[in-house]
Write a structure and sequence with these properties.
391 residues, alpha/beta, 9-stranded mixed β-sheet
Length: 391
Amino acid sequence: MNDLAPLLAPEGRALLDEVRGTAPADELAVATRLRREHPAELVSAALGQARLRQRAAAKFGAEDAERMFFTPNGVEQSTRASVAAYRAERLRALGVTSVADLCCGIGGDAIALARAGIRVLAVDRDPLTAAAARANADALGLAGLIDVREADVTEVDTASYDAVFVDPARRGGRGRIFDPEAYSPPLSWAVRAALRAPHAALKVAPGIPHEAVPAQAEAEWISDGGDVKEAVLWFGTAPGAVRATLLPGPRSLLGRGLPDPGVRSVGRYLYEPDGAVIRAHLVAEAAEELDGGLIDPTIAYVTADALRATPYATAYEITDRLPFNVKKLKALLREREVGILTVKKRGSAVEPEELRRKALPKPQGPNSVTVFLTRVAGAPTMLLGRPAGLT
């Protein structure tokens, strides 16, 4: 698919309505039937778009996804709607009324910004991607707030906008790009663009090294439903600040420059910090709230004797502590009639699925157990427990 125009025409839109929700197993039969009355290329494009819409529902919600237009890269690289909405609300709260959205992709962030009442210039150099962004603004009734421009972002004048948002491409022909200077455009260019605006937000990979964060930026790591989605470098807010934000919520944990927590013996409870907390290097802040310590100086598991409510970590009640030994674990699971085994690991080379297969080859029994493969004071250890609920 190199042109959206046929799908935007009346015949294409009618076909999109007809193939909506087509299951993969039914595609051949549907395509054969429709090609009797419509061009084969148009039928293929409609079915391809239907597949993309089904994939996009997880990010955009079914209602929006069924009206939007996607490219394969657009579905893969778009910001999840909940994350985009959170970021748009932060910009709105800063008093931003206009944003230059550079590297806009298929328009996911532009949509969130427009829904927050912000006027958007959405720029992308790829013709098909820009066409999709334009079609999406129109499909969702936001064309009055979103001006889509096909251009090289490095040549766009952003001086008249309150803020700049840059989402550089972080994938190449060989997959993900980890060096920020290999982004397209490079992080250094995005920082220069940010410093020229009153406010700016740069979307970067959550694995960005902390030393690569500019001194002028606030660094925020965002998770949604427990999955780390991205990091954002904010300009015009709080230079040097670090935060972890958890969605839904939002709940934000601010860094206070605390030293690493001390190491303690394993207590009654084990807390698994949210991935955004770990990426933001804020395990110490989370541990302080829990009056907890680490089980090992190199492992981001917090232990404590008391159960405390926190949005920043998941609590487990620990029932057993064993040296790493598959045979002992297998016997214990059989004795306790375990039928469901959840395996988590941190600081262990053992793959969870491998341990699950060896320790519980024939799942049976009504009980469930969570096993943590980790290190305690440097020694390979298995901690057994269950999710802890507050009463």
